[in-house]
Specification:
- The chain folds into 2 domains: 8-115, no CATH class; 126-393, Rossmann fold, CATH 3.40.50.150.
- It has helices at residues 8-22, 73-80, 126-133, 139-143, 158-181, 197-209, 223-235, 268-278, 293-298, 306-309, 312-333, 365-379, 385-390, and strands spanning 26-32, 42-49, 54-60, 66-70, 90-95, 99-104, 110-115, 187-191, 215-220, 241-245, 258-262, 283-287, 336-342, 353-359.
- Helix 1 packs antiparallel against helix 2 (73-80), helix 5 runs parallel beside helix 6 (197-209) and helix 11 (312-333) runs antiparallel to helix 12 (365-379).
- The chain is α/β, with parallel strands linked by helices.
- The model is unreliable at 126-132 (pLDDT under 50).
- The structure holds S-adenosylmethionine (SAM).
- S-adenosylmethionine binds next to helix 6, strand 9 and helix 8.
- S-adenosylmethionine binds at residues 192-194, 197-198, 219-222, 247-248, 262-265, 268, 271, 289.
């Protein structure tokens, strides 16, 4: 491991990390490298209290790997300042009593500053975390038929359980800090919630971590599943979670922090995203479902992909990619930082792509819109529901 040369503010930052590790107020440090969007590397060191000893878990967004490290201050500091992490452009140290930021501006000038503690009182207990990320003994899972009376996952629902567990891991990684540091009730909507597996799990997760009882709503056109969800919800005492029978209202916004739309059919995904944008959603998690809108159009006009279009299966696959990339570009054009990820193994569902993002003023909205228009022109389609739904904002 080579010794990197630190600038003055980086040295101040690592000194503060050392103090926090030494006086045992350390909770987490996140380093963010240069680059844009998905290319931006993040490396995190999280304190975890195991049953017999303290550990630090090292993880990055480059892969799903996590490494547990012994709590050795010198070794940890050496790793934090290694080539894997430096050069970083921003970093946040969270301690029990304050947050400490390192930030570089566009010209590379660095500064450090203190801020309010975002993780005050947050427990880093290993077992507790493991349990609430997805604890199979939670009563709502029994009500939904995923687990037995003894809290054991029923074999035929194992895929569903994995899907829910992965989903909760993703939201924990992406919004855990927001959830635990927000000083007001967090609002969440799940559009096309179906039987509400993820609505229940996300609500339960937020309720466990948030400072206030969340307010969550699941919406679906199927009356029978809504009735079932409401009876399970009141049975397990989730007073902030309700289910409403109805269509996704793309033009009727309500302020919402977190929007979920998983496998809402075809253009219902675009209605859900439009609703979210108009509702000023801060975070969204969306797994598109079957989609027909673009596939039909690819057969119509002249297209650079004509030879692919002649094979219906390949045309559909290509249309899926185009549809989702267009969604990502349109959402970026509307001020969201967007990423794609695979949220569960293909063997559990073939529709395992998730589009997730958050409001971020620094995205290049104009470029994303130009890229969208170019893609539309070159692919030869005329309509995309998300564009139609939000044309007045673009
Ligand atoms: C494939 S299911 C997914 C359910 C759930 N999100 C999940 O991941 O388990 C799609 C759901 O979306 C609902 N849906 C489709 N279009 C809708 C719309 N326009 N408004 C409300 N719900 C809709 C369907 O009734 C169905 O329950």
């Amino acid at each position: 491991m080579t010794e990197p040369v630190l600038n003055k503010e980086q040295a101040v930052f690592f000194n503060t990390c050392r103090q926090a590790l030494n006086d045992e107020t350390f909770k987490r440090v996140v380093f963010t490298g240069p680059g844009k969007g998905n290319d931006k590397v993040q490396v995190r060191f999280d304190l975890v209290l195991g049953e017999t000893k303290k550990l630090v878990v090292l993880s990055t967004n480059r892969n799903q790997d996590k490494r547990s490290l012994d709590f050795d201050v010198d070794v940890l500091l050496k790793l934090m300042s290694s080539d894997d992490v430096v050069p970083f452009r921003a970093a946040v140290l969270s301690t029990e009593t304050f947050d400490f930021h390192y930030a570089e501006n566009r010209k590379g000038h660095a500064r450090t500053y203190r801020a309010k503690p975002s993780m005050k009182g947050v427990e880093n207990n290993h077992n507790r975390q493991k349990n609430y990320v997805l604890d199979p003994t939670r009563p709502y899972l029994r009500g939904l038929g995923v687990t037995s009376q003894k809290g054991v996952v029923i074999k035929k629902h194992y895929g569903k359980f994995r899907q829910i567990a992965n989903f909760i891991e993703i939201i924990d990684r992406d919004i855990g800090e927001f959830v635990s540091s927000t000083d007001r009730p967090i609002t969440m909507t799940d559009l096309g919630c179906g039987k509400g597996y993820l609505t229940f799990a996300a609500y339960d997760y937020i309720r466990e971590r948030a400072k206030h009882q969340p307010q969550a709503t699941g919406i679906d056109i199927k009356a029978n599943v809504i009735d079932l969800c409401n009876s399970i919800s009141s049975g397990v005492g989730f007073s902030g979670l309700r289910f409403i029978n109805g269509r996704i209202q793309k033009d009727k916004p309500i302020e919402v922090d977190i929007l979920i739309a998983l496998h809402a059919c075809d253009t219902a995904t675009d209605d859900a995203l439009a609703h979210g944008v108009r509702s000023h959603m801060k975070y969204f998690f969306c797994a598109p479902c079957c989609q027909a809108e673009i596939a039909v159009q690819l057969t119509e006009g002249a297209s650079v992909f004509q030879s692919i279009n002649n094979f219906p299966l390949m045309r559909r696959r290509q249309a899926d990619v185009i549809t989702d990339v267009c969604r990502a570009l349109l959402l970026t054009a509307l001020g969201y930082r967007v990423k794609f990820l695979e949220f569960t193994a293909l063997e559990h569902t073939s529709k395992n792509v998730m589009l997730a993002g958050y409001l971020d003023e620094s995205v290049d909205r104009r470029k994303a819109h130009t890229d969208y228009l170019q893609l539309k022109r070159e692919c030869g389609f005329k309509r995309h529901s998300l564009e139609n739904n939000l044309s007045d904002l673009l």
